[in-house]
Amino acid sequence: MNATSSPPARRQIQTPQPPTSSFPYNPGSLLSVMDLDLPAISQLLARAAALESQDPLTRDRILLKRRIALLFYESSTRTRTSFELAAKSLGADTTLVSSLSSSIEKGETLKDTGLTLRALGAEAIIIRHNSSGAPWLLEQETRLPILNAGDGMHEHPTQALLDLRTILTHLDLSSKTVIPSEARAASAAEGSAVSSSTLSGVTVTIVGDILHSRVARSNMLLLPRLGARVILCGPTQLLPDSAANAGPGISVERDFEAALRQSQVVMMLRIQAERLAGLQIDLGQYKDAYQLTGQRLAAHAPKALVMHPGPIIRGLELTAGVADGPQSAILEQVRHGVAIRMAVVERALTAQPKEGRA
Amino acid sequence: MSSILIRNGHLIDPAAGLDAPKDILLKDGRVAEIAGPGKIKPGNGVGSDVQVLDATGLTVAPGLIDIHVHLREPGQAHKETIATGTAAAAAGGFTAVAAMPNTNPVNDSPEITRWMLSPDRGACVRVYPIGAATRGSKGEQINDFAALKAAGAVAVTDDGHPILKDNIMRETLASAARVGLSVIQHAEDTRMTQGASMNAGPMAFKLGLRGMPAEAESGLVERDIRLVTELKDSRVHLHVAHTSTAAAVAAVRKARRNGLRVTCEVAPHHFLLTQEHVGLYNTNAKMNPPLRSAADRDAMIEGILDGVVDAIATDHAPHAVHEKEVEFEHAPNGITGLETALGLCLRWLHKEWKLPLGRVLSLLSAQPAALLGLKGRGTLAVGSFADVVVFDPKAEWTYHAKETRSKAHNTPFDGWTMQGKVRWTISEGRIAYAATTPQ
């Protein structure tokens, strides 16, 4: 080795590496959209389609008398009802535990509530919790299949999956465009396997209170893996610049109309008043800059699909006319929720451990 | 009191500039004699009751000093007691620890200070209470520092309830200086960290957790330095606790260049770990200040290597297992540190980043002793306290939290490889810890 001619190498400092994750412990769990690889997503979409069209009288044999607990620390209409309908459609027995009518009110910890449900025979737990990360704790302590039905400001994986299904049913495969009208190239993409280019050329803009939104996080982590471009749009208070670093394929655009002009899909979000933690938002200014009005939509995104995870606040993030208008897929999203959750619940109780895992 | 003769060891005493094979005789709780190997004979006042420790192949150094620990007494004995916390300290090679006042009740009085120092507490190494700067650590009414000092307090701080009001902090610095006490500030502008449970940045965004901005730390450090500057009193000493951000270290560095008496400490987790170690809501990676960015972590390493950092302190913060088995944002802040500090410092600062052994030991003994003016500690000079750690500097071992002497198990370093195994810890001439003989 010639040590004289080359300058001394800049010393590379070795530092301890972060540990690798052992989550999920249970192959049936769905904690994050990142738990699913593309084949698993394809499988879930295929099962959603199959289960949706299956005869209800044979479908309810799939999980006949299996026990599923719904553990809800936050109020919910869509998610709770559709998970419950999904589980019951497959024949499972469900029980609802909500924080306001249980020992949680008396100070029982999440760990103890989880262990109690397991002792009662619950084979899977669907959890909605106001603290980010709670489903991970529950899985670690119970090792049951845990389905994340929304954790704090973190993730809502089934919402992202049903949003994906909604987008796919409007996707014209030949032109790679999203067609909002009902007379679409009927679900050409639905049921077929997804790949890393399924949504290439599709731009999805997520608008509003990104900071506090688990729906936004799950979608921004899921959609780019299928080739979509995700634009995050909102004021700095509700959308920090660092959001663009959350994953690949994500960018931040503060100008709503500029974002609209690039979008085939617009996802509107509610301002989460319950999570603002003292943050003051001038709603008048907010509406001026970010409300989706019929005029804005017609001027900048006349062909875009309008989505919203609900609950919607009419007259705030979007006008009633837009919510009820021809470009809106809001109620369609709700319908897809039941199908997706049937597939996710079925997976929870039938998934086999991956090779090499205990 | 019996005597202890430590033979055939390699003695390192950074304060005395000593780094050589030496025997050392401890008598009546003090260092009695240091001489070349085999030079101390029973004739030299060593009676038949002398206990001889064979330190062949081992390093003999001043007992380690941790100026930032939480011993949880009075009031939170389910987390730790002075007895269990100091037992963990001894196992980690520490012979003196300075205990933070965020107890229940807050240590803001001579009575509580004396209660902590009572032999009834069963401390197995020296405890130095740190008094609260303000009544109940509420940041309003300044305590009687002379009385606290007379009772045994070695510094004042409101620790986790940092003093935000300029006038109260100014008065704290001035009053403490008049009685010769240091002011320790946990630098966190708590107005910027409400509801936050980790470092602000992409990781917090991704995990859906509210973040503590680095400016909440550096801003308060800069404010405190400004107050020190304005006071124009060379007796004023500001010590910045558990520095975790590059900007805070830079502010301390600048203050020192300007001749101010501003010092800082860094905890092992802040020079080793980053916010990525939070992983998926690991509550044993939750502490305050939080784990920061890689750039901040690198700045801690740089600050240690270039000398701006005055001490390694663990911020040993024990919690009961059930308290950490909760949702991340509800988990209490803090990790244990007394048993892992030496092993991590030798493994990383010394072995990996080539900081000479003497400097590592200085950061863990001589410098913290000087910083808080702990007389007769942090050195093995004849006449000083017989506080000694004897360790095998080459031994690699694995830390298992379940074997801890602390009541608590909350550490992110469970299962980590350590370097440097403590064989004996001697506190004021008494063996406070002896490793079980290696097989």
Structure commentary:
- The complex is a heterodimer of chains A (358) and B (439).
- Chain A has 358 residues and is an alpha/beta fold.
- Chain A is built from twelve helices and eleven strands.
- In chain A, 34% of the residues lie in helices and 13% in strands.
- In chain A, the strands form three sheets. In chain A, strands 9-8-7-10-11 form a five-stranded parallel sheet, with helices on one face. In chain A, strands 2-1-3-4 form a four-stranded parallel sheet, sandwiched between helices.
- In chain A, α3 packs across α12 (330-350).
- Chain B has 13 helices and 19 strands.
- Chain B has helices at residues 82-91, 110-117, 145-151, 166-178, 202-207, 214-231, 246-257, 268-272, 294-306, 321-324, 341-352, 357-363, 366-371; strands at 3-13, 18-27, 30-35, 51-54, 59-62, 64-69, 94-99, 126-129, 131-132, 155-157, 182-185, 198-199, 211-212, 238-240, 262-266, 311-312, 388-398, 417-427, 430-434.
- In chain B, strands 1, 2, 3, 4, 5, 17, 18 and 19 form an eight-stranded mixed sheet that branches.
- The A-B interface holds A 13-16, 18-19, 21, 23, 109-111, 129, 131-134, 136-137, 141, 151-155, 211, 214, 217, 240, 242-243, 245-247, 277-278 and B 194-195, 201-202, 205-210, 272-274, 276-277, 279-281, 294, 297-298, 301, 322, 325-330, 348, 352-353, 416.
In a few lines, what is going on in this structure?
The complex is a heterodimer of chains A (358) and B (439). Chain A has 358 residues and is of the alpha/beta class.
Q: Which key phrases capture this entry?
A:
heterodimer, A: 358 residues, alpha/beta, Rossmann fold, 2 domains, five-stranded parallel sheet, four-stranded parallel sheet, 12 helices, 11 strands, 13% strand, globular, disordered N terminus, B: 439 residues, Urease, subunit C, domain 1, TIM Barrel, eight-stranded mixed sheet, six-stranded parallel sheet, 19 strands, 23% strand
